[in-house]
Amino acid sequence: KKERQKFFSIFYMSINAGSVLSTLITPILRGDVQCFGSDCYALAFGVPAALMVVALGVFIFGSGMYKKNPPQGNVLGEVCKCIGFAIKNRWNSSKPDLKRKHWLDWAEDKYPERLIQEIKMVLRVLVLYIPLPMFWALFDQQVHV
């Protein structure tokens, strides 16, 4: 667990350091270095591109050291089955006195509590995406000059 935390901290620090360096170096390379008699856009964007290729090479070269677990099951399928089972159980429930806090709780008979709780969390996040189609419909109506 400590190694994972250390790795993530170093990885995150490297990403942020690269972002800061590129924010500082790209304008300097573009403005202060001359290529073909004008600003050197090719160098300004070629250096980050070359560094991305190096990063990809390091990633591929180091892939032999990764712990690779074979895929197990289909999470999306389990989620859909759990939601379908909860809806079916709720719809077919003949006992009106049975109350559940959440409609997904009707899947407790077949699916683990952890899966149900995680689906509830995902559904709460997905609510944030409801206004997106309206936003993009309005955004795309702007006149672009």
UniProtKB/TrEMBL annotation:
The keyword Transmembrane helix applies. The chain crosses the membrane at residues 7-29, 41-62, 121-139. Pfam families: PTR2. Its main location: membrane. It is found in: Membrane. PANTHER family: OLIGOPEPTIDE TRANSPORTER-RELATED. Belongs to the major facilitator superfamily. Proton-dependent oligopeptide transporter (POT/PTR) (TC 2.A.17) family. This is Solute carrier family 15 member 2. It comes from Ilyodon furcidens.
